[in-house]
Structure to design on (619 residues):
């Protein structure tokens, strides 16, 4: 993935990130780093500011304070599409596919950042634009194979079941050939089998392609099993950061999830 | 939508899969269509003027289809872009005394530039508000036309000459406009299956996701308006030299709304939509024009209502399409083809 790019150990560095909406403090002084090939989980109760952090990283929200740098470059003030061109891709909590386009078109559109044919050659088609589209089609087919969604290729996304849509969205994010992938609850609302499939894809992306990822997920079993490191948030603040075992037994994390009560010393560890 | 493929017609490469006319039947069909267009003057006789009229407006509607059908941006000022093209062409041929062969591309370029400027607000305003912003442009152009060039009457436009051949008959104009029509339609269709079209559809379907995946919203939204305006500019230039007189009434708000009607009736987001819609709307308009006096004579009760029979019929047709077939004629045809393919089975 990173061919031709200088080897940087820290892929993403977030420092003192603070985001306010009028009176609401969505994110307050959050700092963390993501290393090459790492899978970082972000957990926290509803409204803790997890998605807001992702939105700041890909440029949806402009934080009031803080600095975000990606592969050694300060991206705090870049617009979202420029960040995409640098290699930050993501999926959304509530599926944000292009409903009236086919699976093929959706994933192909993920490659827009790599398409360069001019307006005229697009209109003429034969020649450069055709070669370009075919070459991208080849990559799209590889992704369709990887996600095992061959039968749905020519179907409109709006007609597909939820679990397949989630896969297509992952496919579209991968089509960009990202250097950093942000996954916002990729398994929300899925059946156990679909979750297992999704976990398998995420693991393969990490193990085979060494793709650094940030994963927001509510299924603790999945997060604890998959992630190298976990960041826990509550009320916009970072309350803990560390390997899964440590987070499971962290008193602040337990307090955030289960509330303050005597006698709940031993953790969320067990089932959750 | 699943469809039945004919036997023995296989695809063995992605290039074949992405071809516009991907099965033999379509290739033959398209060839027959082209031959039919070439022979139309013989078949239609003096009625060829109807096809000329349809062609001009179909070119304009193709532009609006890129703006509304593919990029999802509403525009109520499409006739104003047509005016920009028409008056550019008039200025270039009658004031600068340059040939039509230069005036036509220049009209497209000027309209392209004006479209890009008018499209700028679309980055910040959406839906109804954008409609009103484009409406303001429509009125501005109408006002300019009345106050500066044409007044309440019309401006005469010189006849055209293409590489020394005077285009002075309906049949000659037909070959000119049909060439532009087919080339323009193919160009727009190619756009929809490459970088530009994918980006426009992404913006239409979900602009924030498109942005996150590397689509520059400002660039593509203004590009959509500019492209749409360029098509309208070409249509305007052709109209000016065909009609030989242009005035504010030809590029009124009613005409802009007719363009929207063509898209809705033909089918939004379909490459055949604008052509089917333009044909439907123009033929219906001409028929109503012919029948209105007869209707008044037949039913004197209607009285002066017959003068607005056009508006009444169009209102009803639009509402009927929106209720029963929002996909327009294009979807209707696709359903028909599917029915024929599968007959005698229902599924």
């Amino acid at each position: 993935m990173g061919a031709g790019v200088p080897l940087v150990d820290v892929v993403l560095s977030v420092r003192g990130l603070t985001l306010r909406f009028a009176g609401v403090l969505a994110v307050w002084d959050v700092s963390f780093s993501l290393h090459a090939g790492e899978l970082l989980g972000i957990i926290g109760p509803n409204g803790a500011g997890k998605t807001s952090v992702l939105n700041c990283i890909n440029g949806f929200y402009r934080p009031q304070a803080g600095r975000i740098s990606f592969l050694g470059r300060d991206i705090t003030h870049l617009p979202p599409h420029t960040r995409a061109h640098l290699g930050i891709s993501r999926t959304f909590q509530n599926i944000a596919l292009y409903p009236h386009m086919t699976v093929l078109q959706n994933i192909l559109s993920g490659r827009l950042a790599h398409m360069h044919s001019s307006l005229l050659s697009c209109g003429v088609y034969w020649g450069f634009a055709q070669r370009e589209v075919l070459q991208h089609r080849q990559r799209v087919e590889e992704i369709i194979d990887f996600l095992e969604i061959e039968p749905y290729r020519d179907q409109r996304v709006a007609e597909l079941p939820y679990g397949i849509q989630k896969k297509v969205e992952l496919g579209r994010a991968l089509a960009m050939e990202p250097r950093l992938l942000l996954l916002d609850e990729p398994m929300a609302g899925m059946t156990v089998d679909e979750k297992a499939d999704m976990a398998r894809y995420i693991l393969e992306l990490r193990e085979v392609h060494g793709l650094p990822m940030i994963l927001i997920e509510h299924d603790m079993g999945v997060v604890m099993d998959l992630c190298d490191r976990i960041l826990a948030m509550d009320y916009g603040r970072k309350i803990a950061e560390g390997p899964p075992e440590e987070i499971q037994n962290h008193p602040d994390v337990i307090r955030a999830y289960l509330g303050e009560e005597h006698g709940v010393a031993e953790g969320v560890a067990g089932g959750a | 939508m699943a469809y039945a493929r004919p036997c023995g017609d296989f695809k063995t490469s992605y290039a074949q899969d992405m071809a516009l006319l991907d099965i033999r039947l379509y290739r033959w069909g398209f060839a027959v269509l082209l031959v039919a267009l070439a022979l139309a003057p013989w078949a239609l006789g003096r009625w060829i003027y109807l096809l000329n009229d349809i062609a001009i407006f179909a070119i304009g509607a193709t532009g609006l289809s890129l703006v509304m059908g593919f990029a999802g941006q509403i525009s109520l000022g499409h006739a104003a872009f047509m005016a920009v093209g028409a008056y550019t062409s008039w200025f270039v041929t009658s004031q600068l005394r340059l040939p039509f062969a230069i005036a036509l591309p220049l009209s497209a370029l000027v309209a392209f530039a004006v479209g890009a400027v008018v499209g700028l607000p679309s980055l910040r305003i959406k839906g109804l508000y954008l409609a009103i912003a484009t409406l303001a442009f429509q009125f501005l152009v109408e006002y300019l036309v009345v106050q500066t060039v044409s007044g309440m009457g019309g401006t005469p436009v010189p006849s055209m000459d293409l590489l020394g051949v005077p285009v002075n008959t309906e049949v000659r104009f037909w070959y000119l406009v049909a060439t532009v029509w087919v080339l323009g339609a193919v160009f727009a269709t190619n756009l929809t299956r490459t970088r530009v079209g994918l980006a426009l559809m992404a913006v239409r379907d979900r602009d924030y996701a498109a942005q996150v995946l590397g689509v520059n919203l400002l660039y593509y939204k203004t590009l959509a308006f500019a492209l749409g305006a360029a098509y309208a500019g070409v249509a305007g230039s052709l109209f000016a030299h065909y009609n030989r007189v242009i005035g504010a009434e030809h590029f009124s708000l009613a005409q802009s709304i007719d363009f929207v009607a063509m898209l809705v009736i033909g089918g939004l987001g379909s490459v055949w939509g604008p052509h089917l819609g333009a044909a439907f709307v123009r033929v219906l308009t001409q028929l109503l024009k012919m029948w209105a006096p007869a209707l008044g004579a037949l039913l004197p009760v209607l009285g002066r209502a017959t003068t607005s029979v056009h508006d009444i019929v169009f209102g009803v047709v639009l509402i009927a399409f929106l209720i029963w077939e929002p996909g327009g004629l294009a979807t209707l045809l696709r359903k028909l083809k599917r029915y024929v393919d599968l007959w005698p089975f229902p599924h």
Observations:
- Chain A has ten helices and ten strands.
- Chain A has two domains: 8-87+178-272, 97-176.
- The CA atoms of residues 163 and 191 of chain A lie 8 Å apart.
- Residues 97-176 of chain A form one domain.
